[in-house]
Amino acid sequence: MKIKTLGIAVTLACLPFSSAEAADQLACSAALAALAGYVHPTERRAALERMGNLQRVKLWFRMAGVDCLMQAYGPNRECGWTVVADETPPVQPPSKEAVQAFVAAPTSDATAKCPKLARAMLAFPGWREAPEVRLRPNRHGLYPVTLVSITLPVLAPSQNEAIAWLDSQSGRLAGSSNLVLLRRTDSGAWRVTAVLPVSVS
């Protein structure tokens, strides 16, 4: 094990860009996990598209305050992290270091940083090619495919936590924005552990 660790250290020292590339790959795998866990394959169909307005992410921080990201949702709070269906309460909010990294990092679209992301999503039931989402909404104003966009997850310094902003739209007035908290399991795989609702329409 020590030999492998030393080998990795030497490789990163010899290739100055490999550390950044490795971090991007880790963030892309976190994005894949967030998207795969978001759409239940038996409930609806979804397609990945680019996020249009990245400025809203920073605007929301200015309005809600960073304190919102440090708290679990409760009866006396209007903002905070809440569990996902397969998690056991209480929620463990992200670490201070993870929040600081997320707030400080530039907001970027995951599809721009992860060119293979859209294609990788097609391996999961329920996901469709992007051109299909251009179909007109039905008489109820709903799209046949839910449009989903996500920012590139920002890794905590420990690289065991990541936070991303995820949008979904299934109709003209049917959509939501959420912050997604991911943590790595003992096997190294990413898992969605909590969400922070930002807006619902």
Whole-number average pLDDT? 79
Tell me the overall shape: globular
As for the number of domains, it is 1
* Class of secondary structure makeup: alpha+beta
State which percent range the strand residues make up. 15-25%
Q: Can you count the beta strands? A: 7
The major β-sheet equals: 7 strands, mixed
Radius of gyration: 18 Å
- Low-confidence residue ranges: 1-17
Distance between the ends: 51 Å
Please give the count of helices.
Answer: 6
Work out the helicity level.
25-40%
List keywords for this structure.
alpha+beta, 7-stranded mixed sheet, 201 residues, disordered N terminus
Description:
The protein is an alpha+beta fold and 201 residues long. It has one domain. It contains 6 helices and 7 strands. Strands 1, 2, 3, 4, 5, 6 and 7 form a 7-stranded mixed β-sheet that branches. A hairpin with a 5-residue loop joins strand 6 (174-184) and strand 7 (190-200). The longest helix is centred in the first third of the chain and has 21 residues, at 18-38. It is globular. Mean pLDDT is 79; it is low at 1-17.
Fold blueprint:
Elements: H1 2-14, H2 18-38, E1 46-48, H3 55-64, E2 82-83, H4 96-104, H5 110-113, H6 117-121, E3 142-150, E4 154-155, E5 161-171, E6 174-184, E7 190-200
Parallel strand pairs: 1-3
Antiparallel strand pairs: 2-7, 3-5, 4-5, 5-6, 6-7
